């Protein structure tokens, strides 16, 4: 095909996109008329994609409103969700309505740092230990290298891991309101240069998979990556029975046997009913990196009988989101972020709390449907 110039041309025009799409039609024999219809500037989108031929549209709906009494998100919100799965938005909306009947949800961000973990090759274990010691004694030099790459990011800590001649350094950064993966990578590369020059350790890769990025990982489940977020709600006993057609005991039992025992038996990282469903729809709507859904999938859902009422909470250790940069600047995604007042600086933690509350609502609704043996019926009615 003629179009390899799209990889070089970072400011291509609408005419460039049309030419490339026609070339793709000739090469594949497919009619690409539908993907040719989109509302944003091709030139502005050039920083988000290479070899652009058009756009894929995903249906967008909203769930809610949901009452949130969080540390950063406060008030009533309509949550934008992009999905092709029938019944999902209806289920989340049901969960939100029930949470409202219980007085709303609380959410908080307990930890906030993006990680990148380069791997170095050392001469031996002793050399690796000496390198670690140099790093601990020269944090100011490393901070200077990091600061030279960004005015928004800040190095929080460096955690070393040694395995034979392999030295892994898990850098943790405050990345402000950006999701921060690119920022962390560039800053880590600068730090690696300083470490190499002064220790003789050799950088093998700026990512040694101890980060761990875009993969389910126990280190992220336990220590967190991006934002660690908690959300909770208490649903009165009568609301559970009237609105969810279940009992507190049946939902608690379902969560225990499904999410806790079943997940443990299968070796799942996380313990939830379908957190990735809510995370994916939320991320697609608001311009987040879809690959970071894997971090959101590692949520843990807890249910307890609280004097007859249902207490439900979620812990999400890896909510990797931003309100600036990436896909957040695209017009449709910007509008979705404006719906929840999460566009621009100072809004990233608020966005993360809304992610957790949305997952909480989806978990509540699905667990209740399974406890009441209504899940199949709901999908039959709404998902086909």
Task: Describe this protein's structure.
The protein is of the alpha+beta class and 384 residues long. It has three domains: 11-57; 61-111 and 226-382, 3-hydroxy-3-methylglutaryl-coenzyme A Reductase, Chain A, domain 2 (Alpha-Beta Complex); 118-205, Alpha-Beta Plaits, CATH 3.30.70.420. The chain has 14 helices and ten strands. It has helices spanning 14-28, 42-45, 88-101, 125-137, 139-147, 181-199, 218-223, 237-243, 248-266, 275-286, 293-296, 331-339, 348-371, 375-382, and strands at residues 60-69, 74-82, 106-116, 119-121, 154-163, 166-174, 202-205, 226-235, 300-306, 309-319. Strands 3, 4, 5, 6, 7, 8, 9 and 10 form an eight-stranded antiparallel beta sheet that branches. The radius of gyration is 23 Å and the shape is globular. The model is unreliable at 1-9 (pLDDT under 50).
What tags apply to this protein structure?
3 domains, two-stranded antiparallel sheet, single chain, 384 residues, 3-hydroxy-3-methylglutaryl-coenzyme A Reductase, Chain A, domain 2, 10 strands, Alpha-Beta Plaits, alpha+beta, disordered N terminus, 8-stranded antiparallel beta sheet, 22% strand
Give the termini separation: 39 Å
> CATH architecture of the largest domain, please?
Alpha-Beta Complex
Helix content: 40-55%
Report the biggest beta sheet as strand number plus sense, adding barrel if it closes: 8 strands, antiparallel
Structural class label: alpha+beta
Oligomer state equals: single chain
Name the shape in a single word. globular
CATH superfamily of the largest domain: 3-hydroxy-3-methylglutaryl-coenzyme A Reductase, Chain A, domain 2
Spans of at least 5 consecutive residues whose pLDDT stays below 50 are: 1-9
In total, how many domains does the architecture comprise?
3
The number of E-state strands comes to 10
Helix-strand pattern, N to C? HHEEHEEHHEEHEHEHHHHEEHHH
CATH topology of the largest domain: 3-hydroxy-3-methylglutaryl-coenzyme A Reductase, Chain A, domain 2
CATH class of the largest domain: Alpha Beta
Radius of gyration: 23 Å
């Amino acid at each position: 095909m003629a179009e390899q110039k799209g990889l070089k041309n970072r400011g291509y025009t609408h005419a460039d996109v049309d030419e490339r799409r026609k070339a793709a039609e000739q090469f594949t024999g497919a009619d690409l008329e539908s993907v040719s219809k989109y509302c944003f500037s091709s030139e502005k989108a050039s920083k988000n994609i290479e070899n652009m031929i058009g756009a894929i549209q995903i249906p967008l709906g909203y769930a809610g409103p949901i009452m949130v009494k969080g540390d950063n998100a406060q008030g009533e919100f309509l949550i934008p969700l992009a999905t092709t799965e029938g019944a999902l938005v209806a289920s989340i909306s049901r969960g939100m309505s029930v949470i409202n009947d219980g007085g709303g949800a609380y959410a908080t961000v307990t930890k906030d740092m993006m990680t990148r973990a380069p791997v170095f090759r050392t001469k031996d274990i002793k050399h690796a230990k000496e390198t670690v010691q140099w790093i601990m004694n020269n944090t100011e030099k490393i901070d200077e290298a990091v600061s030279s790459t960004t005015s928004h990011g800040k190095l929080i800590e460096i955690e070393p891991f040694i395995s034979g001649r392999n030295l892994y350094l898990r850098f943790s950064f405050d990345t402000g309101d950006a999701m921060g993966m690119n920022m962390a990578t560039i800053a880590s590369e600068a730090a690696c240069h300083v470490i190499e020059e002064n220790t003789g350790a050799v950088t093998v890769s700026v990512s040694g998979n101890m980060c761990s990025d875009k993969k389910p990982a126990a280190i992220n489940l336990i220590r967190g990556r991006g934002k660690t977020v908690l959300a909770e709600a208490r649903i009165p006993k009568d609301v559970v029975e009237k609105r969810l057609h279940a009992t507190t005991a049946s939902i608690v039992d379902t969560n225990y046997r499904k999410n806790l025992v079943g997940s443990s038996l299968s070796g799942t990282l996380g313990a939830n009913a379908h957190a990735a469903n809510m995370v994916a729809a939320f991320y697609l709507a608001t311009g987040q990196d879809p690959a970071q859904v894997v971090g959101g999938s590692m949520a843990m859902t807890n249910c307890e009988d609280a004097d007859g009422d249902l207490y439900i909470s979620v812990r999400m250790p890896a909510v990797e989101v931003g309100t600036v940069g990436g896909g957040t600047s695209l017009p449709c995604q910007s509008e979705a972020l404006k719906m929840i007042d999460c566009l621009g600086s100072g809004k990233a933690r608020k966005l993360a709390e809304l992610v957790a509350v949305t997952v909480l609502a989806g978990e509540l609704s699905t667990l209740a449907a399974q406890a009441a043996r209504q899940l199949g019926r709901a999908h039959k009615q709404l998902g086909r």
